[in-house]
Specification:
It contains nine helices and three strands. By secondary structure, the chain is mostly helical. The chain folds into two domains: about 60 residues, Orthogonal Bundle (Arc Repressor Mutant, subunit A), CATH 1.10.10.10; about 140 residues, Up-down Bundle (Four Helix Bundle (Hemerythrin (Met), subunit A)). Strand 2 and strand 3 form a beta hairpin. Helix 5 packs antiparallel against helix 6. Keywords: DNA-binding, Transcription, Transcription regulation. This is GntR family transcriptional regulator.
Length: about 210
């Protein structure tokens, strides 16, 4: 799959999200724009623009004249998030199955293979990259800008929660995500919706497990 060249802002966004996901930026800690710019060897403008996107997605909290804080995650917040994500994700998958272009379906099949391979190789960075692509391609294929606006914060926060606690779980959701992509690639709306619900069922059970730890 051909990757698009990222703008500086988009590159900063992707790198900062990855640093949050993999706890290179610690929950509850405060950082300045200058610190983050130095970490990524970038100017402050793309950092500032990337942080605005991340703040909208609730991945960071921005406090004027104080800095940027990485918010803590809770089981309660994640369960509430999944309540909202379930119907939107199912709608997104169903629309994608109906509206995906031939090229998008080809990308879906490639992503289905790639995400399973990443899980098999236990390559967390590659899995994170593929998971972002899975989410982005599904939203793009739905051809609905309102779904795009609704899904971005829900998916980003869900990714962060899973990566934070994944070491406590013996299951892996790669095959579930792959089933969504394969159903969309077939143009099978019913199966795509069911597969999307299966992903949320897994995430809900995964989240509840954290209460017992």
């Amino acid at each position: 799959m051909v990757e698009k060249e990222l703008s500086q802002t988009d590159s900063a966004y992707v790198q900062l999200e990855s640093m949050i996901i993999f706890e290179q930026l610690e929950s509850g800690a405060m950082y300045s724009e200058k610190q983050l710019a130095d970490m990524l060897d970038m100017g402050r403008t793309p950092i500032r623009e990337a942080l605005q996107k991340l703040a909208w997605e609730q991945m960071v909290n921005i406090y004027p004249r104080r800095g940027i804080q990485i918010p803590t995650l809770t089981v309660e917040k994640q369960l509430k998030l999944l309540e909202v994500r379930r119907p939107i994700e199912a709608l997104c998958a169903g629309l994608a199955a109906e509206k995906a272009t031939r090229e998008q379906k080809k990308q879906m099949r490639e992503l289905a293979e790639g995400i399973v391979e990443c899980a098999h190789d236990q390559n967390d960075q590659a899995f994170f990259h593929h998971l972002r692509q899975v989410h982005n391609e599904l939203v793009a294929a739905s051809r609905n800008d309102y779904i795009r606006q609704a899904m971005r914060p829900l998916q980003g926060l869900s990714r962060r929660f899973w990566f934070l606690y994944k070491e406590k779980d013996t299951e892996h959701p790669a095959l579930l995500h792959a089933e969504v992509m394969k159903a969309v690639a077939r143009g099978d709306k019913v199966s795509a919706v069911q597969a999307a619900n299966d992903v949320i069922d897994y995430l809900h059970a995964f989240t509840l497990k954290q209460i017992s730890y």
